[in-house]
What we know:
31% of the residues lie in helices and 18% in strands. It is an alpha+beta fold.
Amino acid sequence: MTDCIFCQIVSGAIPSSQIYEDEKVLVFLDITQVTPGHTLIIPKQHCKNLIDMSADTARQVFGVVPKLAQALVKATGADGINLINNSEEAAGQTVFHAHIHLLPRFAAGDGLDIRFVQNEPDFGKIAELAKHIQQEVN
């Protein structure tokens, strides 16, 4: 796809700071560097996002995550890693080529703030939603 910036990175038309490559996957540093070592893992073959991704492509992409997470921790001295995927505009996706963010974490003041709001659980609604999702999986 010629108008996709990540496809252009895969083809070599746009330079990147690559840190890993195999036949199906390319890994490079994000130019935004939300935290030092902010890394993107992409399939070389274009697909829009995780929702559009085949199981085979997902195995290839997610198969390199542990190796890259371990390397990032060693190289940056990070205390932890966040793995983030934004699929579709409502989730914050801005580049519509599937990608996984690996974000090394250093401390509370490292510039990234992710919080989950804790509400009182409604176990009946949770069980009903689980049942509905199960029907879609099968």
